[in-house]
Each structure stands twice: as structure tokens, then as C-alpha cells.
Design goal:
alpha/beta, 4-stranded mixed beta sheet, 15 strands
């Protein structure tokens, strides 16, 4: 009874979302995964499509690790040893040996002093930015930063906020100059990889610019990145945007749920930073950690990535990314060139984007269409995401479908 009036308002809001094209629609349900066989990578059976097999070209699992037998075995062993859930938050009795081992390995992986696990990367960004923002803190953010950063800034209520043009280092410098005198502390925040486009922040330019202003703020200028799409998938050994650009930021947020194929988020930085966040980040203090089995699986993925087997998967990922990118260019499609496995196909028209996504689906290819108002008018695109478990035959098949559509 109490929801009657509210339901009417919510229904109107839902209708507005649908009419404007901003609704997500019904969720696709994967009923079954067919393991890779022959020259074909994994195939997916989707609810409502019978036995039709689909290639996933919109998955964040860049390294294709989630179905590896040794990763599954590590998760199962930990579940048998520690149970399926931690049973408490970390500071009570929820910390188990796999959590500590994984944090130690993540810090080592990134060349930082310490690491701290959160339940997701989205929560991590909020759990880092919010506790570090005081009433005398200035925040400076790239205009294309992920929603988690945008929401964290809203939650934090800084002394001042500045947004610089996407990857425009001249504008960043101008915003830093404007920010001088507005607060004691300045946080410069950027994605490592921008998930809609697959391009990266130029840390090698951004970090030196921020250092120029270090002495102009009483508590310094701190660089923070969310490199969730970069970690594991970018750079020669999968260390992400820091490795690719040859420059290190002060604080890095990463995820276990994309290239590593598991679940959870983390931050790496100084030992003092991590100790402070342990005491002040509500997203950490009041939430259960990831399960011990997830931590064990992620630890196994890190071990594989640093082995010959893992490096071969990473090299294959880079090779398939280049093959697909070059393929769509040769077919006459437009893209934003880059080395990251997010490969955007720029359609620049809402109706055409929807039509192409439907055509791909009809032909067994899952890809994500991004239309206005999710992206600005004229920037409509289809975001393809290459994974290490895609084969050359898979890429050729998808390019073939795109060629058929072009001819159609």
C-alpha cells in the first residue's frame, strides 16, 4: 500500500528512460558456456535463443582466465579450506590468509609498498577518494572519467572541483593554476584506460605537470588513477598504463574482475596510505571482503600472468587486438587507434548503431552499442572488446559479419 504513489512516479521515470534510449533493458541470461575447441574460442548459449552459439565480443575478461582449469582448481581448494564466505568484515574476523597473500602479491606486482582489497573496483574508487577529501581539498578530474569517480567526487564535497578537457595536458595545467590557493591538498584523478574509447591517459605527461605544482599546495598534489581496464591487459607484462607510459602515479585503483577474470577491487600505494584507509574508508570497514576462494583464484591468475604461459596469452591478446583493429579499418570502418583491447567502431548515428548491433546479434556476435545520450551525438559507437581466448578464426568470423553488413 505504501508504495502505490511511489510506484507511479517510478514507472513514469522508467518510461522516460526508455523513450530517451537511456534504459539498459532486460538483462541477457547466459545459460551455458561451451569451452574452446579446435580453432574456435568459447561459445555462449543465451536464454531465448535456443541452441544458437554466440561469440562474446563485449567481455571485460581480457586475458580469458576465468575458465582455466588451474584457476578453477585454486578457487575450489580455497572454498573447501575456508568455506564459501568470509563471515565477517575484515577488522572483526573476516581477514583470512588468502586476503593477505593476495594483497602482498598485488603490491609487489605494481611496485608499491602496500595493497588493500575492496569488494569491487567501483567501491574502491569511492573508498579512496572520499576519505582523502577534506574541506580543504581540491579535486581535478578528466571529463571522460568513469562514473565511479564522478560519484565519488559528488559524495566527497571538496572545497573546489575542476574538470579538464579529455587528455588535454594544457588544460590540466591551467586547471592546476586556477586551483592554487583554493585548498591545502589537490587530488588529480584520471582513468588509466577510458573504457568507452580504449585510449589511455598520458601519465608520462600528467605526472611531471602535477609535480610542477607540488610546492604550491601545503599538502601536495596527489595523482590517482583507476586503471581497471588497463591492469592485466595493457603494457608489455600486463602492469597497465603505468608500464605502457613509463610513469608511475601515487595511488592506483585496479580490479580483479576484468583481465584477471575473478571478482573484487583493490588499491595500491604507500604503507601509510593503506593504514589510513583501513581506519577511514567506510566502504572497506562496513563491508565483507571478497571470498577466500576469489582471493586464491586471483592469486593464481597473477602467478600465471608472470609466467611464460601468461606472457604468451598477453602477446596473443595484443596480436588479436591489432588483427581486429586493422581488419575493420580495411573494411572501411572508422575506429580510434590504440593498443588496448577495447576497439571502438565509430558509427556516429544512433539508428545505424542499433541496426548494426542487431545484425551482429542475429549472426551470433555479442557487442555493445553506445548511443546518445550515453555518448554525445555524433560519437555513437559499437565497443568491441578482444579477449585472449579469441582465436584467429573468431576474429575472422566477426570481420566477415561486418563485411556482410557493409555489403548489405
Amino acid at each position: 500500500m505504501g508504495l502505490k504513489k511511489l510506484n507511479a512516479v517510478l514507472q513514469k521515470n522508467l518510461e522516460d528512460l526508455r523513450e530517451s534510449g537511456r534504459d539498459k533493458g532486460p538483462e541477457m541470461i547466459i545459460e551455458k558456456i561451451i569451452k574452446a575447441q579446435g580453432d574456435k574460442g568459447p561459445r555462449y548459449i543465451i536464454n531465448g535463443h535456443g541452441d544458437k552459439e554466440f561469440i562474446k565480443m563485449n567481455a571485460n575478461s581480457y586475458l580469458g582466465m576465468s575458465m582455466l582449469p588451474e584457476v578453477i582448481e585454486a578457487e575450489e581448494k580455497a572454498a573447501h579450506k575456508y568455506g564459501v564466505g568470509p563471515g565477517a568484515v575484515r577488522f572483526i574476523s573476516g581477514t583470512h590468509r588468502p586476503h593477505i597473500d593476495l594483497e602482498t602479491k598485488l603490491a609487489e606486482f605494481h611496485g608499491k609498498e602496500a595493497a588493500m582489497l575492496f569488494s569491487s573496483a567501483y567501491v574502491t574508487s569511492m573508498g579512496v577518494i572520499y576519505p582523502l577529501t577534506t574541506k580543504e581539498t581540491v579535486l581535478i578530474s578528466d571529463e571522460l572519467n568513469h562514473n565511479c569517480i564522478i560519484q565519488a567526487i559528488r559524495l566527497s564535497r571538496p572545497a573546489a572541483k575542476y574538470i579538464y578537457k579529455h587528455n588535454d595536458m594544457t588544460d590540466l595545467k591551467a586547471k592546476l593554476q586556477e586551483a592554487v590557493g583554493q585548498g591545502k591538498r589537490c587530488l588529480v584523478i584520471t582513468d588509466g584506460i577510458f573504457s568507452m574509447r580504449g585510449d589511455n591517459s598520458p601519465f608520462n605527461e600528467l605526472v611531471p605537470i602535477c609535480k610542477e605544482f607540488e610546492d604550491k599546495f601545503e599538502e601536495g598534489v596527489i595523482t590517482i588513477t583507476d586503471d581497471s581496464h588497463g591492469v592485466g591487459a595493457f603494457g608489455k607484462t600486463g602492469r597497465g598504463t603505468e608500464e605502457y607510459t613509463g610513469a608511475k602515479v601515487d595511488i592506483l585503483v585496479g580490479t580483479l574482475g576484468k583481465a584477471f577474470g575473478v571478482n573484487g577491487g583493490y588499491v595500491v600505494g604507500s604503507k601509510t596510505l593503506v593504514e589510513y584507509l583501513h581506519e577511514t574508508a567506510p566502504m572497506y570497514i562496513y563491508s565483507n571482503p571478497i571470498t577466500c576462494s576469489e582471493a586464491a583464484a586471483a592469486l593464481k591468475v597473477l602467478q600465471i600472468l608472470d609466467s611464460d604461459k601468461g606472457q604468451k596469452r598477453l602477446q596473443h591478446l595484443h596480436k588479436m587486438t591489432k588483427k581486429f583493429e586493422q581488419g575493420i579499418i580495411e573494411l572501411g570502418y572508422e575506429t580510434i587507434p590504440g593498443d588496448h583491447p577495447v576497439v571502438p567502431l565509430m558509427v556516429r548515428d544512433t539508428a545505424k548503431t542499433t541496426d548494426l548491433v542487431n545484425y551482429l546479434t542475429e549472426n551470433g556476435v555479442l557487442a555493445t552499442g553506445l548511443n546518445f545520450p550515453v555518448v554525445p551525438k555524433g560519437d555513437e559507437e559499437i565497443r568491441f572488446q578482444i579477449n585472449a581466448d579469441h582465436t584467429e578464426a573468431d576474429i575472422d568470423y566477426v570481420l566477415g559479419v561486418l563485411k556482410q553488413y557493409k555489403n548489405k
